[in-house]
Amino acid sequence: MSQDRAEPATTVVLEELASWSEDLCRQELPSVLPRLLSMYQCSDNWKDHIRVLKILTEMFLPHINYLALEQSFFSQVLPKTVKLFDDMMYDLSGQARELSSQNLELQATLRNILQSMVQLLGALRGCVQHVCTLQESIVLENIHSLPSSVLRVIKSTFVHCKNSDSVYAGRLHLVSDLLQALFKEAYSLQKHLMELLDMVCMDASVVEEDDTSDMVSVIHSVLDICSVISDMDQAFHANTWKFIIKQSLKHQAVIKSQLKHKDIMAALCEDILFSFHSCLQLAEQMTQSGTQEFLPFLSDSCCTLHELYLQIHSKFPPSLYAPVIPKAQEKEILSVFLVALDPLISQLLSFTPFVEAVLGDKLDLSSELQLPQCLLLVNIMDKLPSQPENVQSLWCERSQYSEHKPRMSLLEAIFYSFEQCSGELSLPANLPEVTTKGQAEVAVTLYQYVCVHLCTFIASFHPSLFPELDVTLLNAVLNSGMITSLLAMDTWCFLARYGTAELCAHHVFIIAHLIKSCPGECYQLTNLSVLLRRLLFLMDTDHQMEFIQKFSPKEAENLPLWQHISFKAFSPEPKSQIANEVTMVGIAQCKKWLSSRHTLGELESVNVALSALLTVCNSISEALEMGQQAGVLEAVSPLWTILHVNQVSSQPYVQWTLSLLLPLLGFFVQAVEPQLISQVVTLQTSLLKLDPPDYVRLAILDFVSSLGRIFFPQAIQEKVLPSLPSIFTLLLTDKSWLIEQHTLEAFTDFAEGTNHEDIVPQCLNSEETKNKVICFLEKTRMVDETARARVDRIKQEKRVLNGHFVKVKVEREGCLSTLQPRAKRIRQEFPLEEEYRSTLQIAEGALEAVQLLLQRSPAPGWLTVKLEELQMKINTLKSCAQPSASSCNKNT
Fold first, then answer.
1. Residues 650, 690: Cα–Cα separation, whole Å
2. Which of 2, 92, 318, 849 could form a disulfide with 429 if both were Cys (CB 3.0 to 4.6 A apart)?
3. Cα separation of 792 and 786, whole Å?
4. Where are the domains of the chain?
């Protein structure tokens, strides 16, 4: 039969087969498959060749038994397929240089060849995908011809695409769409082949030699492809190398002796060097072209980029909200994502919209994003020393970029963000840090991490920014959050050590004046006094003497300052002199009040005097002369005659007096008259029944602890000894963990020192209390807590704290808004939107806390009723929030 007569006959047969159903193909497979294979081998027409191949792979391949695939199909079809592809590639490459827009016939011919090649690759992909669906593990012997044929075609395709610029000699645009389709099809084919080869099983005990050779050949062929695609697609190139490494390790027991290790290492080194040179070239181009040219177009994307950074960081330790994943995978993902994000931050440092997005003081970050925000700010801070002065100023100076959104400075933002990380600070969360140059990383707490980086940054601070630094540190010291205030103090002390002696002295004098000007007791005064106490240790001797002269301890007006100073900061000679002078002035103040009308309004001066005397005792009690000790006791003992239970329970000034008198008596307890001790113990017993403030309870503990150092005379034993167990028992069961902890310490001191051992067991009147004391002595926990349970508890506590902080912030802003005139605003539809948002955040946090409690223990009976009441209130609020509701009943 001639070629002209055979072609129509072939077409008729193929058209008939194309209409067959799946069942018919399965039934006729034994008779039709040999005929189709014969047609495929004999056909010289590329078009018919592709049609036969597609019918074979799409309609009949799915019905061939897995074990017969190689012998019945792949060994007969694939060699011819590879030859056909090589022939098409030969014709394509040979005629490509003559391609032109005027030669339409050649253009059509080449495009037909490319389309046929795309279809052929698609047919091969169908073969690979079919094998993947057959079973979970594949034996290479059963698909022997498939990997080698596919890899040869893939490599040929990539080589052609790589050389397309030179092959098509400036006429690439005429076929670029089909070349792109060809590359995508080859890319997809390789991806599916790697998935197939990942399913290959090679048992070292039963593997055939041919299978071993096949796998070695596959790895070497993929290695050849690596060298082709190294400069085409970096991600694809990296994944191809990962495949080589993965398969080499997976089958190392059977293939390691046959692998060409030298070739693999040489190729790997060559590719690494190529990537290195590419990076250098890219960096050179960035230098020449400028990297800031597209920044103006990112203004609207800065908030999105900021959110991206925070979201990714929140999924990794030390975040409380990070999923639990293996360390190896964690490090791998970190190296890809976080390392890639770092250059982005560097590029955006000088971009004002990014600064505004990061430092906006109205950021409403969820709990899981607060630690990432803190770490981002520290990261930015680390980069600033290498930036120009204007960029440092952009970040470090507080400014307002609109009437609506004032911007914090970077240091303000760090302190604010740090305060929000209460959970991570209490856990504590750890971060890797190099503490000594040249040494390996060690785990440090979040507090230590932020503090070290903050101090390092301050050491490189530009002089023009020091006013901003002073203001920020002072505001942070005055913060109501203890941990934030402590961080500011540590930073300030570093500044005092790093700076000049004059700078340290200047700061000390300023803080001293601030303390003297503080009206009454407040947490700000406490924070300032702690800072002053620490800074005085860092002053040189000359400046200390200047301080003593400026704030003379001989003057009663300076007692409010000296009550906060540790005399241990001074050298022996001035220390003794200061102690004597403060003691004399303190005694004089007490006697002055006692000789007057004893008005409560004047009791504040007595409290200052008592506090100063207590400071002397804490600093140098062992150095007080007997005459001074007697003088102190003589001055303070009469004060007990005016202290009555009702007064102490209702008058804050009197409560403060008692809290100072108790530790003072504790210092001199061995010299105190027995009758006075009995009087004090009786007062304490009565006062505890009236639920006094915590600081009064702590003072009571201080005194009863000191009673372990004396033997009670017979005259007062009957009144004192029965009272002590009741005091300890009551405080050991206190609801406050702080009181409970101090009680355990005080009870231990008392029990170890007292001669009245009989009363010790009387203090432990329950098994719970006994176990509590035993655990304290053995330094063990009463309740074992898993790491996961601890994190869950910390999260719950963090929600409660965040709700508290929001409430305090709303109340503080509300107070400020009543004192200050409102700035003019652009039209605002919801003037109290921030207050609404903050209040609802508190409510949401409380409900989440209840949900966590339900997971830990059964619900009490009244909870359902209470939730129904809350639901009714919510429904009422919803009706009030409707646009049609003009007002709402205030009694709702």
1. 10
2. 318
3. 10
4. 8-63, 67-207
Residue 574, burial from CB neighbour count under 10 angstroms (0-12, 13-18, 19+)? middle
Alpha carbon distance 677, 665 (integer Å): 9
Give residue for tokens 């990714």.
Answer: 312
In three-state secondary structure terms, 148 is helix
CA 843, CA 840: separation in Å to the nearest integer? 5
Q: How far apart are the first and last CA of the chain?
A: 99
236-256 burial: b if 16+ Cβ within 10 Å, else e: bbeebbebbeebbeebeebbe
Q: 0.85 exceeded by the pTM?
A: no
3 state SS for 47-102: HHHHHHHHHHHHHHHHHCCHHHHHHHHHHHHHHHHHHHHHHHHHHHHHHHCCCCCC
Residue pointed to by tokens 């503090």:
451
* Nearest residue to 224 (alpha-carbon basis) of 239, 241, 236, 212: 241
pLDDT digits (tens, 9 = 90+) for 701-718: 999 999 999 998 988 988
pLDDT one-digit tens code per residue, 764-792: 888 888 888 888 888 877 667 777 888 88
* Structure-token pair, residue 535: 């800074």
Q: 178 CB contacts (<8 Å, ≥6 apart)? A: 111, 114, 115, 118
Q: In sequence order, what DSSP letters do the residues of 454-514 get, joined into one string?
A: HHHHHHT--GGGHHHHHHHHHHHHT-S-HHHHHHHHHHHHHHHHHS-HHHHHHHHHHHHHH
* CATH architecture assigned to 67-207: Up-down Bundle (1.20)
Q: Extract the tokens encoding 312.
A: 């990714």
pLDDT tops 60 at residue 805? yes
For 885, half-sphere exposure in the C-beta direction (CA atoms, 13 angstrom radius) is 10
In this prediction, residue 842 has a pLDDT band, given cuts at 50, 70 and 90, of low
Candidates 404, 408, 406; CA nearest to 824 is 404
* DSSP output for 184-199: HHHHHHHHHHHHHHTT
Confidence class for position 316, pLDDT limits 50, 70, 90: confident
Distance CA 107, CA 96 (A): 9
